[in-house]
Structures are given as structure tokens and as C-alpha cells.
Give the backbone structure.
Amino acid sequence: MSRPHRSHSLEFKRQVVQEYLGGETLHGLSKRHDISRQLVRVWIEKYEAGAFDDDAHAADLIQQYEARIAALERLVGKQALELEFLKGAVRSTQRARSAPTSAIAGPAVYPSSGAAS
């Protein structure tokens, strides 16, 4: 049975890699932390490539923040459009209510100055 997807902090990944570099076996780390050996191997490769450096972590955070900002900007734009639409609907409803009404649908009827023929 597969495990549910979990997200591990950068500090945890560094700790596991440091334990491996300190002499711990992949099997031991995998059992103790309940993670796959392949995942530990991936973390070791990333660590050696410098992906766990503070600068890389900061760049990842910036990228996540920029994506969140873009999503929020899209949401604000959508809400602004909806607000303008609703304002227009309210204005047209108010205009229709203030117009003279008649029992007959249509424009208001005004008596003519001439006699009916």
C-alpha cells in the first residue's frame, strides 16, 4: 500500500542527509524516519548539488510568494469585475423603479393635445 504524500521541511531533509554523511545507512534512516531509501538518495543528490543552501531556500520562498501574489491578483481582478457588474445591475434597477409606471407595459402614456379620430 502506498503512503500518503508528505511534505518535509528543509531542516528535516538536512538532518537526514547529515545523519547519512555521519555514517548512518540508507536502510536505517529509512526505517527510523519512515521514508523511502530512494527519497534519502534524492535528498543526498540535492544536498551535494547545493539545493539545500540558504540562498536556494530563499529563492524557493520567493518563487512561492510570487505565485501566491499572482493568484491573489487574479482573484482581486475577478472580484472587481463582479463588483462592477453588480453596481451596473443596481443602477439599472433603480432607474427602472423611478420611471413613471402604467397599467400597460411600455412607455408612459401622455394625453395628446388633439382629439381622437
Summary: The mean pLDDT is 83. Residues 54-98 form the longest helix (45 residues). The chain has two domains: 8-52, 54-98.
